[in-house]
Amino acid sequence: MSGDTPTAGAETTYIRLPEPRRSWLVSCTDAFRNLGVCVVAVEQGSIVIYAPDNSESFELGPTGIAEFRAAFTDAIGVAEADLRAMAAASARS
Questions:
Q1: Which of 20, 44, 54, 64 is found 20 to 30 A from 71 (Cα to Cα)?
Q2: Pair 45, 70: CB distance under 8 Å
Q3: Exposed (0-12), middle (13-18) or buried (19+): which is 40, by Cβ within 10 Å?
Q4: For the segment 3-49, what is each residue's pLDDT rounded down to a tens digit?
């Protein structure tokens, strides 16, 4: 019952929810036709796509296209959640 257990001095316990995934590695070929990895990342509500090192562009093969599509779709969901959270926080201020 609510009055049976004293709560004075009791520690508060918080449960930390897992963070959503924020980066995905996708197989690709760099501008020099070398195998590489590009990164799809979410940073503060924006989606950033990084080409392999020393390359300004990259090419996706059949597997890379599927990986990129899945990563980009997931990244959009995370970025939208970030933007909603930022909007809600600014509305409270």
A1: 54
A2: no
A3: buried
A4: 555 566 668 888 887 889 999 999 999 888 999 999 999 999 999 99
Predicted TM-score (pTM) of this structure? 0.74
Q: Which residues contact 47 (CB under 8 A, 6 or more apart)?
A: 40, 41, 72, 75, 76, 79
